[in-house]
Amino acid sequence: MAIPYNNNIPQPTDIPAQSQPQILTNFASIQSIIDVNHADFGAATAGQHNYVEMPVQPAAPAVTIGEVGLYNLLLTGVNEMFVRKSDGTSIPMTKSNQALPGYTYLPSGIILQWAQISANTNPFAVVFPLPFPTSCFVVMTSMVSPSAADPNTFVSVITTTVTNLGFSVNLYKRDAHSTVPSTNPGQFYYLAIGK
To answer: Other CB atoms closer than 10 Å to residue 91's CB: what's the count?
Structure first.
């Protein structure tokens, strides 16, 4: 929305009665800008935002050292809110896949991922749908209820190798006191935390 504004008014030689229309236009323009997403001048909440609306940026903007920026950027067909740190790191803090499997970003740059996995070998390799850019800190697993056909299997999931790309697990039987890997398929959930 273009708003008329004359930044050359008033001049030292202006006669107020003659430049009054331009001054009034400037005041009206300022009022129009304030009224977009802000409480009105006369409101009890004057000076506060009703909400923040950001236009889409063509690229990640640079920020001054020691400052943090928030911006809107189109990412794989969806507008996302980003945090831009002064070290140049951009974090898509609203990007997520709210499904199973799924993931979400935190504004700090931490990424959470989760899934339900059907394992049919021991050890079983899991590949993250979204590789962690730097590293995976921890993987937590829990078994889905054992099958009625073999209720003594799939009681423990032991995570072995963990990388930023995925991890490996072994499934163990209850009837063997978790010392014998299971040879039957089993399902488990995981939650992975990394950055």
So the answer is: 20
Q: Which of 68, 74, 104 is nearest to 88 (CA)?
A: 68
Do residues 86 and 35 share a domain?
no
Mean pLDDT of the residues in the chain: 86
Q: How many domains does the chain have?
A: 3
Q: How many CA atoms lie within 13 A of 174 on its CB side?
A: 10
Residue range of the domain that includes 64: 54-90
pLDDT in tens, 38-57: 888 888 998 898 888 999 99
Give the list of residues 6+ apart from residue 93 with CB closer than 8 angstroms, or none.
Answer: 80, 81, 82, 83, 105, 106, 107
Q: Which amino acid is at 138?
A: V
Model pTM score:
0.75
Q: What is the number of other CB atoms lying within 10 angstroms of the CB of residue 158?
A: 14
